[in-house]
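Much of our argument rests on the idea that a fold can be written as discrete symbols. In the encoding step, the backbone of a single protein was reduced to a row of integers, each denoting a local shape. We regard such an encoding as a compact summary of how the chain folds. The record that follows shows the chain in one-letter code together with its fold in token form:
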Amino acid sequence: MAGVEPRVVDNPDGDELVGEIRYYVRDDAKVVLVHTEVGPEHKGQGLGDFLVQGALDDLRERGIEYRVICPFVAAYLRRHPQS
């Protein structure tokens, strides 16, 4: 990933990824964040935090309510309560 700027995108078609947040949309239109994963070759680079912050920013910008059941996202929110 040297020289490549990471970006967070909604990727329903499953293009090549370095990490992902799995989610589903409830009947009431709330997004449930279920699982976060970064490929083993990319761990330890802060990409998990980058992914979570990008996903939360996107949900808020679009006015979408969310619920967190993913332990990684929950831990991120505890470490960054302003997020």
Q: What stands out?
A: The two ends are 26 Å apart (CA to CA).
